[in-house]
Amino acid sequence: MLDEQYRREALTFDKQQLPSIPATVGWEAPSNIALVKYWGKKAIQQPVNPSVSMTLSNMHTQTRIHYSRAKKDEGRIWLRFNGIEDHPFKDRIQRYLNHVKPFFPFISHLDLHIDTRNSFPHSAGMASSASAMSSLALSLCSLEKDLLEEPGEPSDFFQKASFMARLGSGSAARSVYGGYVEWGQHEGGSDEYARPFPGPIAEPFPVLNDSVLVVSSQPKKINSSSGHALMDNHPYREARAAQAEENMGRISRALKEGDFKSFAATTEEEALSLHAMMLSSRPGYSLLKEATTEIIDRIRSYRYSTGTSVAFTLDAGPNLHLLYPTREKEKIRVWMNQQLKPLCEGEKMIHDFTGNGPQRLDK
Question: How far apart are CA 131 and CA 160, in angstroms?
C-alpha cells in the first residue's frame, strides 16, 4: 500500500532540511477529459469504477509555491487564484494541505505563498479541479525533492504525484501524465494512482482535436463532490460500475485499433450515462442546459448525414467536448462556426488537442 509507504518515508523528515532562504517551485498541469467516467467513491478518494481520459494541452493550471522557513512554530498559507487574494478556493487548498501533512510534514514548518492561475473557467464542469490539484501536488512533490536535495526526478515521482493529486481531486490523478491515462483497478491498474494508457495508440488517436463548447461558464449549482456522494446509495450504482468496466475494454480496443466509430459510440454512451446517474440520484438533479441538448442533436444529425468522424462527451457540467481527428479538422471547424458557435455562451469555444502532460515552471 502506497499510503503506508509514503507515511513511513515522511517520518525521516528532519527540520534541519528546511531552506534558509526563500525559494520557488511550480508546475503547469493540464486538464483532462474522461472518456470512461468515474462517478462515485469508496475508501479515501478511490473510484467505484475505473476510468480512462485524454490529457489536454491548452486548458491548464499554473501553480507556483513561494516558500520560506516559518518565523513562528506553525507555517502560514497565502493564496492568489487568478490574481485574487484569499479566493474562496483557499479553503479547499487549506483542507487539502492539512490532509497531506502526514505525507509532507514540512508543510507545518513553511510559510507558503501559493499563486495559481487557470487558462479556462473554474468550477464550470471542465475539470478545473483536475488541473489545479495536479499542479499543486506536482509542486509539493518537487518541493519535497528539493528539500531532500535529490537530483533529477526519481522514477516514481509521477506515481507519487498522481497519488497525492488524487487526495485533492480524483480526476487530478490522471492529469500528471500526457496522452491517454487510466485510473482504477482494470487490467493491472490501481485505485491509488493513475498510469499512462498501456499499449499502442493507432491513428487517428495519437493527436485528437477537442473543441470545448462553452454553454455556460458559471459555477455549477451542485459540485462534483456532492454528486459523487449521492452515488453512495444510488439504486444503479452496481450496474453503472459494471457498464464502466465493460466500456474500458471497448475504449481500449478502439484506441489500439483506430476504430473511431466504436470510440464515438462508447464515449457518448459514457457521457449520457454520467448525466443519467445525476438525474436518477436521490434527490435527482440536472446540470444540462437547453443549448446542451440542442448541440447534441446537431452533432448527431451532422454525423449521420455526412459520415464525418465527430463525437461528443461531457464532464459533470453543461459544456460539451467535441472530439474529431486532424484529417477532418478544417471542414468540422467550418461547420462548428456555422452551426454550434451561435449556441455557445458569448459564442465561446476553446480549441484544444491531446497534450503531452505537465511541465515544471521553475527550472
Answer: 16
**Residue after which a domain boundary falls, among 171, 198, 225:** 198
Between vectors from CA 124 to CA 120 and to CA 125, what angle results, nearest 5°? 100
User: Residues 65, 67, 71, 74: is their CA dihedral positive or negative?
Assistant: positive
Please name the residues in contact with 160: beta carbons below 8 A apart, sequence gap of 6 or more.
2, 6, 141, 193
In this structure, the answer to whether residues 172 and 56 fall within a common structural domain is yes
Residue 359 lies in a domain: no
pTM score: 0.94
Domain assignment of residue 291, given as a range: 208-353
Q: Is residue 143 packed enough to be buried (19+ CB in 10 Å), middle (13-18) or exposed (0-12)?
A: buried
**Given this model, what pLDDT does residue 83 score?**
84
CA–CA gap between residue 57 and residue 33 (Å, rounded): 11
The reply to whether 183 falls in a domain is yes
Q: Provide the mean pLDDT of the chain.
A: 92
Please answer whether residues 61 and 131 qualify as being in contact, where contact means their C-beta atoms are separated by less than 8 angstroms: yes
Q: Model confidence over 11-64: pLDDT tens digits?
A: 888 888 888 889 999 999 999 999 999 999 998 899 999 999 999 999 999 999
- Does residue 240 share a domain with residue 219? yes
Q: What is the pLDDT of residues 300-333, one digit of tens each?
A: 999 999 999 999 999 999 999 999 999 999 999 9
Which residue among 167, 198, 229 closes a domain? Answer: 198
